[in-house]
Amino acid sequence: MEVWEKINYILAEKNISKKEFADKLTALEPKIKRTGETPSFHTILGYLYGKREIKIELIPYIAEALGVEEQELFSFDLEYAASYNYKQSKELREIVHLLRYAPQSVIIHMKEQLQKYKKLYDESVKQF
Q1: Mean pLDDT, to the nearest integer, of 34-41?
Q2: Considering the entire predicted model, what is its pTM?
Q3: Following DSSP, what letter does each residue of the chain receive, concatenated?
Q4: Is 18 part of any domain?
Q5: In the chain, how many domains are there?
């Protein structure tokens, strides 16, 4: 998944239109080093459609406009695979974020429960 695709994924997940995103990004007044200017609405759309290369200096502004950490734009784990829908992905991301606060015993319990669900799933697939 390319960064522009990830941005679009997050936009859909957060129910933010491309125009709203462009407005948020423009309001932050990011400057392109080469020109010293803020990207235009059409340039931002070019980024979102993969038609223009996203300048690295825009990454912090893009992350802020999306309300995510910069690293999230570059993390392409299974949660972002096409087989997941937006709701599942959002829930999964929230759970992963909260796991750092869980004691080891909770992690072990969750893993055991998930393994039980996997076993049930595998058995049901075999029956068909």
Answers
A1: 93
A2: 0.62
A3: --HHHHHHHHHHHTT--HHHHHHHHHHT----TTT-SPPPHHHHHHHHTTSSPPPGGGHHHHHHHHTS-GGGGG---GGGSTTS-HHHHHHHHHHHHHGGGS-HHHHHHHHHHHHHHHHHHHHHHHH-
A4: yes
A5: 2
